[in-house]
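User: quick one, fold this
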Amino acid sequence: MLIPALFTIACGNGSSLIGPSDQIPNVAGSYTGTTTITFPELRYSASCATTTSVTQTSGGRISIAPLQLRGGECGVMSIPLGDATIDSTGSLGQSSGTYSESCGVYTWVASGGFFGRNLQGSFVYTSRTCYNMNVTINLTH
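Assistant:
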């Protein structure tokens, strides 16, 4: 019987050759693209050319060099990122913390990850004494 044999091949027989993988993607390399910085209270936004590089050691351990923003309204600016761990989907997950600036202290929340050849991230900085900021990065390898 040909039909049951084809059905078994098409649907599998309990052991799948194709399916989710827990292999960590290789994301090392140079990335270029755009960073957009928005100051909600000022109703101001600027988009700037951005570069960075990513190194990867064992498994999902990575190090992201500071984002280098150049030109336009950003002038020359550097945003540090640092060490992180990605999962098998390329996700960096969500993290939070505080950051001191001359105007006061920011509380920040960050999320993002590697999607195919893209590095995408969102950072939200809030403060009682400084202007709030939203930073969005979209970079391609």
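User: anything notable?
Assistant: The first strand starts at residue 29 and ends at 39.
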